[in-house]
Amino acid sequence: MGAVLIVDDMEDLRFSLANLVKKEGYSVSTAANAAEALEFACSSIIDLIFLDIGLPDAYGISLIGRLKEITPDTDIVMLTGINDAKTAVDSLRAGAVDYIVKPFDIIEFKSTLHRIMQSRLMGKKALLEAQEIGLDRIIGNCEAMRRVKETILMASEVGSPVLVTGETGTGKELVARAVHDSRNRQSGVFVKVDCGTLSANLIESELFGYDKGAFTDAKGDKKGLVEVANGGTLFLDEIGNLPISLQPKLLRLIEETTIRKVGGIKDIKVHLRIIAATNANIEEEIDRASFREDLFYRLNVIPIILPPLRDRGEDVLLLANYFLHTLKKELKKEISGFTPDACREMLRHDWQGNIRELRNLIEREVIFCRTGWLTLNGLNTPSAPPPPSKNPEIVTLREMERQYIEKILNLTNNNKSKAARLLGISRTTLREKMQSDQILTM
Length: 442
Prior knowledge:
Blueprint: E1 3-7, H1 11-23, E2 27-31, H2 34-43, E3 48-52, E4 54-55, E5 58-59, H3 60-70, E6 75-80, H4 85-94, E7 98-101, H5 106-123, H6 143-156, E8 162-165, H7 172-181, E9 190-194, H8 200-208, H9 225-228, E10 233-237, H10 247-256, E11 258-259, E12 268-269, E13 273-278, H11 282-287, H12 293-299, E14 302-305, H13 315-330, E15 337-338, H14 340-348, H15 354-368, E16 373-374, H16 397-411, H17 416-423, H18 427-436
Parallel strand pairs: 1-2, 1-3, 3-6, 6-7, 8-13, 8-14, 9-10, 10-13, 15-16
Antiparallel strand pairs: 4-5, 11-12
Helix pairs in contact: 2-3, 6-7, 10-12, 13-15, 16-17, 17-18
């Protein structure tokens, strides 16, 4: 499960973060000051501590060393209202693994929570479970997807690097897991690294680990995710965001199957399969000198190109029915299927958000369905704005959108993250719409 400790002198924030952590499936405790935090550290096993920098009885950064003496294996993330490089560097040197600047977005907090807890779980291999995501989970019969499945089968028979490309939402991680799970022999663990969310300051030690004494207060050795993936698969998502300074180390890993930790003096031999994915045009990144050409060639040994959903023909209906079957069970709704008009609309729609957009739409429609059949009215957008009218029953598109957002917010009890997911937009976009349209919630 994983145990989290929230240390902050603001009671409302402690309560909110504790509830959030609990909803994400972790056990959680709270402390209002340094004394309580030290007491918890002495008496409990803690995986992760979110530590406020400004406690009433201690300076947070100074407290890191004392906590590490008591529980050296615990990860610490600083919560700070000071957004400057010195505070960040001081926190990391003292032993924190990351820091979040207040006021922070809940999505940012959850992302940090999941990334660190996932890393810890991967380090404890006994807690890892192979996910049942094989070739049978790749849904699609169009010619492009048949070629994708054939390539996955070929890739499963060798250990060469794989590069998966495609637009956002086309299922790149699903394909990477299918390659991993389709190996004929024991495939080991699947370790995902999102190169787009890790900061440049942390990604090197996160990937390659560090040796004791590599920097101030590095009191023990730390395994990187490459070592955790030894014997399995390292999936590098959004590889185009990997800092240019780290690309030679990745190239060396591919060519020599060795790594060197931060501050280390010896090479470590590893055996793993590397799968990279990107929605960027790597050739353009090479032209801009932000991606090494030699690394691209080494990663692109087995290319898998995922087609956008709009080019997959009736695969759209296969996927739609799969999501409907899954969601009606999950949401306990009795729904017979899609109307003929809904099927025609799905085949005509351009699906800029690809499979992710399709799933979000169907989830939203299942929630609001009252007839037993899905009409997908959300896809019926007018080709031109309606003419102005003084009829009070006719409202503008903007007003319709405002009313619909209010309805979703009320339905989700003002849970903005869930509302944004149902609306198919980001939480930031939802917040901007609420501010611009002066949307009030209950």
